[in-house]
Write a structure and sequence with these properties.
The strands form four sheets. The chain has a five-stranded mixed sheet. The model has no long low-confidence stretch (mean pLDDT 94). The chain has 17 helices and twelve strands. 51% of the residues lie in helices and 10% in strands. The chain is of the alpha+beta class. The protein has a single domain, classed as Orthogonal Bundle (Cytochrome p450).
């Protein structure tokens, strides 16, 4: 039987899969003392929590997201969250700034990074490629390209350390506070520059769209823009970074999948979706019970925090046939890796393109590619390869 009394965040960071599998089997809705919240681990139950904001609000107290980023669209329920989401979503669609970036600059950015080490014959791909590609892509799309990929990654790491700080480590909280303030100053200055301009500013990106947006109830405030851009940086870099690493790792450890996408390139999109479902780089959604209620027959008192574990829902044996297997012809479509409902990830389309194009460029440019050492997946809230050592035949 599962012993929840001794379960720690470190256990979940190291290897959540067997723990979550046992939860789904023995205690699909359970209280986790170390994190002071309920875990909901099956697909239907996670969907129920997400579909009933009147019972499970995103406006939680305490809120890891609001503490690390400031109040944002993920810490509010519709219609409050709908205002910023509706104003910001067009920039991340194929016809927006993101579409223009993917069409004209994404492959070039990937190739430029590969040019930096293709002749070496080996590298650690997460730091050399996946990280700067995902950080640089979002910097370009947002209009913060002048700060560079390294600064974007540093901001992302600082914010995410506090977002995933379920056990309230003071050092992680301090890092999060420092990052929140530094990034806030950078974004606030950019907003003022855009508002003061007489016309379009070169490289204004999505930030210029946010400043120009004019919803029915008035333009977005500086805090609305600032807090939600912090949200985009915290969530819009980790997931494609880890997604690129996971796809490459999967292809190198499951040769039949590499053969399939080589023979049928249209299967690349299916591969990306299955990798996101199977490994879920982002782990949870957090809600708070507004009233005494229950999920799957388990009573949850009003005021208690509830974690919908989307990583577990994506592996629910009652919803997916053989969920551990990456199946490029899977009949069950859809997954929760980008969350669901009104809080679905704003940048999911852009993230998918970064992972697909980024992984395709690696496989095309580095011949005879092989792993150059063991690969360890780490993290619970944000999970991916700690490192991805590779070697290939250098030109």
């Amino acid at each position: 039987m599962l012993d929840l009394a001794d379960l720690s965040l470190a256990d979940l960071d190291a290897d959540p899969e067997p723990i979550l599998a046992q939860m789904r089997e023995d205690a699909p809705v359970c209280w986790v003392p170390a994190l002071a919240m309920w875990f909901v681990t099956r697909w239907d139950d996670v969907q129920y929590v997400d579909d009933h904001p009147e019972l499970f609000t995103a406006n939680t107290d305490p809120s890891f997201l609001a503490r690390a980023l400031g109040p944002n669209m993920m810490t509010a329920d519709p219609p409050v969250s709908t205002r910023t989401r509706s104003a910001m979503l067009p920039s991340f669609q194929p016809r927006g700034v993101s579409g223009e970036f993917v069409k004209n600059r994404l492959a070039t950015m990937a190739n430029d990074l590969l040019d930096g080490f293709a002749a070496d014959g080996r590298t650690e791909l997460m730091a050399a490629y996946a990280e700067p590609l995902s950080a640089g892509a979002l910097a370009d799309v947002l209009g913060l390209g002048s700060h560079g990929a390294a600064a974007m990654w540093r901001w992302c790491s600082g914010l995410c350390a506090d977002i995933a700080n379920f056990e309230n480590d003071p050092a992680k909280r301090e890092l999060g506070d420092e990052t929140k303030a530094e990034l806030g100053a950078v974004i606030a200055a950019r907003i003022e520059e855009l508002r003061a301009a007489d016309g379009p500013i070169a490289g204004g990106g999505a930030l210029a769209d946010f400043v120009a947006a004019n919803p029915e109830d008035g333009p977005l405030t500086a805090d609305e823009i600032l807090n939600n851009v912090r949200l985009m940086i915290s969530g819009g870099i980790n997931e494609p970074r880890d997604g690129i690493g996971l796809v490459i790792w999967v292809l190198l450890t499951e040769p039949h999948l590499l053969e399939a996408v080589t023979d049928q390139p249209d299967l690349w999109r299916r591969l990306v979706e299955e990798v996101f479902r199977r490994y879920s780089p982002v782990g949870t959604i957090t809600r708070q019970a507004t009233v005494d209620t229950e999920v799957a027959g388990v009573a949850i008192p009003a005021g208690q925090l509830v974690s919908g574990v989307i990583r577990s829902a994506n592996l629910d044996e009652t919803h997916f046939a053989n969920p551990i297997r990456i199946d490029l012809h899977r009949s069950e479509r859809g997954h929760a890796a980008f969350s669901t409902g009104p809080h679905r990830c704003l940048g999911e389309w852009l993230g998918r393109q970064e992972v697909r194009v980024g992984a395709q460029r690696v496989m095309a440019r580095l011949p005879d590619l092989k792993l150059d050492g063991p690969v360890e997946l780490t993290g619970f809230e944000f999970r991916g390869p700690r490192a991805l050592p590779l070697r290939w035949t250098a030109p």
